[in-house]
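User: I'm new to structure prediction. If I give you an amino acid sequence, what do you actually give back? Let's try with this one:
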Amino acid sequence: MVRRTDSARIASAGVTQTRHAVETGMGWLFREQPLEDYGIDAHIEVVDDDTVRGKLVALQIKAGRSYFSTPADKGGWWFRAKADHFEYWLDFAIPVAIALVDLDSRLCHWQLVTESTVEKSDGTYWKLRVPKVHVLDSSAVQPLTDAADNASRRTRGPLGALVDKRDLIESVARELFAAPEIPLGSRKLVNGTGLYCLYYSGADELYCPIANGDPALPLYVGAAASNRRFGDGQVSPTSPSALSRRLQLLADIIREVEHRAPSECEHRLFLHDFTWRRLVVDDIWANAAEQFIVQQSSPIWNRVVRGFGSHSPGSHRKAGRKSRWDTLHPGRERADSLESAETVSELESLVQAHFKNMLKAPESRSWSSVSPAEPSNP
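Assistant: Good question. You get back a string of structure tokens that encode the predicted 3D arrangement of the chain. For your 378 residues, that looks like this:
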């Protein structure tokens, strides 16, 4: 009998191995869903030539010898689950794949949950065959990309009508851009999880091209994930305080560098020059819209001057390099002892080149035209 502690350890090892396979073997992004849910353990996102695509595949991850105890014809193993679980996966908004993790061989075998792969029966349990040759490595990139591409084209809207998923993601971005603009230093509480954009309106000439108040030209975009669920397993997009905590963290970072920046700093930051917009929305749409905005609007702190929203480095990385953000905007205590890989002058050139390329064809952002709400007082 497998004890609960052993089961949790095995499940954790399965997620870790799957993450390694996705990030290293496929070169994709891996986002764990570390909460109890109905049957989705992670989302993986297509990365094509270092470009994120905003297209996802959901994973149900199972690890341990018991999942390899029922061999299937033509090589592979049978995976069994309750019929209502399979129905949930079949109706899911994005493709779902089952990942079976062999902790001995360190291989992750996968199969998409589709009408053609699931073998239904009149009983409580259905099954699908996970082929031995389906391994989460470079060989999985094309078939899973195709699945994500096909699903991203058309999905079912709330009334069952077929709609273009890109339109849904664009509508999330438009709604975010139309949200009220709030000073970053405000103590305004924000209930919920979701999506946010940070804006700059200061006098630093480096960021002049995006300091004009255009809601579709954020300085930075991010998503604040949920951290709890209701007892029935359904996501509560309005109960957690993830957005408030995240925005407060960003304000604290700006406040720290404002007060600690050396006198010779060429690019001082001041909290009163920053505002934000936010949208409460479920995690899966927040992540997709975040990547969509990164692709379409190219926020400079997401694309070029990276490192602003990153967590403190662990002990094994404290001897690493200073981020581009900390090099350009010094003052964060955690980065004081780190060495920069690039000079301020080199980063200035990168920023200027980025804006020149991004803004020379403004018609490419015609999708983002919105009528933003008036700025809100703290």
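You can read the tokens as a compact description of the fold. Here is one thing that stands out. The first helix runs from residue 4 to 26.
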